[in-house]
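INTERNAL AUDIT FORM
Audit reference: QA-55
Scope: verify that the stored structure record matches its stored sequence.
Auditor: D.O.
Record contents follow.
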Amino acid sequence: MNWDDLRIVAAVSRTNSYSKAARSLHIDETTVSRRLARLESTFGVTLFEAADGRRNPTDVCRAILRQLDSIEQAAEDIERMLHGHDYSLRKLRLTTIAVIAEHYLAPNLPRLLEELPELSLGIDTSDHNADMSRWEADFALRLGRPRQGAFLMRRIGQMGLCMVTGRSPATLLAAYPASLSDTPEMRHLQQVHGLGAVRVETTNLNVIRSVLESGRAVGVIPDFLAKTLDPAAPVEVTPLPEGREIWLLSQPHLRNDSLARHISDWCANLFS
């Protein structure tokens, strides 16, 4: 079995596209198609199905993704060691929203990395929600319990919410995009102000916070962000009765991994 063929399987699983997988691997799309066809022919299986312009992994493919991720991670670690002459680092990946990474993770990362000199921690705060079922991350900090998934789940905290209302008579509405209208933040905002004329639409909570601090807008932000508002800001801050649960997700194969357990406990302690 050719490792390059397995790298292609992993890349297509991540991107759901032959062309995107080819670009990420710096090869052409024809090579991707040919090698996958060879692999499927050799083992008599179908790895991907085409639907709505996407290449979706079959059950057979999903069954081997965990092993593929472990192999790929090991290969990356070996390459890093050989290039950098550092024979200790182990890379793990954590995904979360930017505001949690900035206000909880970042200030405490130096101490964690001092405690774990063998750790290289990749933190993804992109709007793209990393798919744990496709092994795009080892850990995830999520707001709300996932409805499904074959990963370990642990409720580690609660994030309070505050309605911030500017004292200006002509307040602008700052809200999430419509795709997030069912979140507690947007439900409360809609109950009080409606969502018919949203003037600032973003998922970036720091942007919303800055707009609210002007005193000319209304919106909902986490309580820890509300505490950072200028005390002289012309706003009214009202705690909301409903908050957001913070859940830690981790890959099942890390259950008995000592390094992973240390990271899990570190995350939990940040919100305890």
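Auditor finding: record pair retrieved intact. The CA atoms of residues 91 and 120 lie 4 Å apart.
Action required: none
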